[in-house]
Amino acid sequence: MRKAASLLFAGGLAFLLAVLVAKLPFGETPMVLGKQVLAQGAEQTGTANLVTSVVVGYRAYDTLGELSILFTAALALGLVLGKRNAAAPRDPDAGLVLRASADLLLPLLLVVGFYIILHGHLTPGGGFQGGVIVAAALFIPILARPSRGLDHGVLVWLESLAGALFILIGLAALFQDGAFLEPLLGKGELGRLLSGGTLPLLYLLVGVKVGAELTGLLVNLADAEAVE
Amino acid sequence: MTEWLALILVVMMLAAALAVVLVPNLVGAIAASSAVSLVVAVIFVVLRAPDVAMTEAAVGAGLSAAVLGLGVRRLGLWKLNEGKKDDA
Q1: Which of A67, A74, A70 is nearest to A152 (CA)?
Q2: Which of A29, A56, A200, A223 is 20 to 30 A distant from B20 in Cα terms?
Q3: Which residues of B touch A217 (CB under 8 A)?
Q4: Which chain B residue lies closest to A226 (C-alpha atoms)?
Q5: What is the DSSP letter of B78?
Q6: Is A140 on the interface with B (CB under 8 A)?
Q7: What is the ipTM of this complex?
Q8: Domain boundaries, chain B
Q9: B5-64 pLDDT, tens digit each
């Protein structure tokens, strides 16, 4: 009986998907917005990378939503993990090779991460990608030396500050121009590091927030005592 | 040329995805899921979506594997030799 029900469900789902596929025009986008952005994006926002002009320009409000989703996920993880059992033993430090390469990788990955964040409006990449790399850079030394730990206070401050500044820039645009998170500060010359108005600033804040949040999340997870 | 490259990549991705389900060892399954994301990232590069490829490589291949691995460790299921016949 249950097998028949599952089969019926799967068949129904396949039928719905087939209907959708049959109705969709293949190989052409039904959206007109994409063409508009491609035609006018660089001119309107002043960013050479059009993906960034969408992510923190036209759809900055969605990015704010993504940031809050990530924040909620990190919060939920902290709640589920709870407080660490103080009596539980910590993992021993890793061997020399892993410790030395972690120390070598830290500055290298930090530079790569911040390069990707700061050049988000010029080349592929941006706050989310760079933020994840920064988080990895900060997490690898913890993985090599689990006993050392990390100061969560600084991370929490950085994260809150970045999130608050993101919203404040949006509110400033609201009061000045009449639209929340509208780009400010002039566009500058296309392709220069200092161009695109507030968009690189917003992406830097995204990068700092994502980096701090994910570092805290990973360290929390790694710090949790393992079940024997 | 691009079609053949995409075809090979898709086959590799499907093989890695099958490995996620079939490998009895949890650590190996996590590594295979990371490999799926890695191949998907290469496919995104071939399809000229470098932004998405970077996200996929950083989040899919790196971060999610780390989170899964740490979760497995937290649950006490981190066993490297599980599923081997000569493990006794």
Answers
A1: A74
A2: A223
A3: 67
A4: B74
A5: -
A6: no
A7: 0.82
A8: 2-74
A9: 888 999 999 999 999 999 888 899 999 999 999 999 998 988 888 889 999 999 988 899
